[in-house]
Amino acid sequence: MKGLDHLEHLDKQLVDELAQVARETVRDELRDQTRRRRRTATLYAASGAVALYAGAALALAVGLALAIGLPGWAAALITAAILGAAAYALREAARPSAPRPVPDRGADLAAGHDPGAPAAGGTGAAAGAAGRAAGAAHPPVPPMPPAPPSGATRPERPGETEPGTDHRA
C-alpha cells in the first residue's frame, strides 16, 4: 500500500505537467491566430480607407464634369443626389429579407388539392401573393373551417354554455 501512495504522487505530478503543457499549447495557438487575424483586419481597414478616397475622387470628377455645362451649385446638387441614391440602394441590398414560406406543391398535388384554387376561408393564391407583396411580416394564417367536422363535439370550457341554452336554475 505504501508503494501505491508514491505512485499517486507521481500521477498527480504528471497530470499537472500535462495540464501546463496543454495550457501553453492553446495559448500559443491562440496568439498565432490572433496575429494572423489582426493583420487581415488591418489590410481590410486600409483597403476600405483607400476605397473611400477613390469614391471621393470619383464624385469630384463627376461634379467637375457636370460643372462644364451647369453652374457649380447644380453640379454639386446632382452629384449629391446620385451619391444619395447609391447609398440608399446599397442599404436596401444589405438589409436582410424576411424568409418567405414556400408552399410544398408536391404534397398538395399528391393529396389532390389544386394549389391555385381559393381555400374554404375565402383566401386564395392571389390573396397570399398580395399579402406577401404588401410586405406581410407574418406568414398567412390558414383558413378556419366554417363548422366542425361532422360528429365532432366542441370541448366545454369552464363558464361557457352552448348558444341558445340557459343553465341557470
Question: What does the overall shape look like?
Answer: flat
Sheet/helix structural class:
mainly alpha
Alpha carbon gap, first and last residue: 87 Å
Number of beta-strand segments = 0
Name the helix and strand elements from N-terminus to C-terminus, one letter apiece.
HHHH
Q: Taking all residues together, what is the mean pLDDT?
A: 74
Radius of gyration: 36 Å
> Count of DSSP helices?
4
Low-confidence stretches: 120-130
Report the major sheet.
none
Report the helical percentage: 55-70%
Proportion of strand residues: under 5%
Overview of the structural elements:
The chain has 169 residues and is mostly helical. The protein contains 4 helices and no strands. It is flat and about 95 Å long. The model is unreliable at 120-130 (pLDDT under 50).
Please describe the topology of this protein.
Elements: H1 2-67, H2 72-94, H3 105-111, H4 125-133
Keywords:
mainly alpha, 169 residues
Structure in a nutshell:
This protein is mainly α and 169 residues long. Helix content is 62%, strand content 0%.
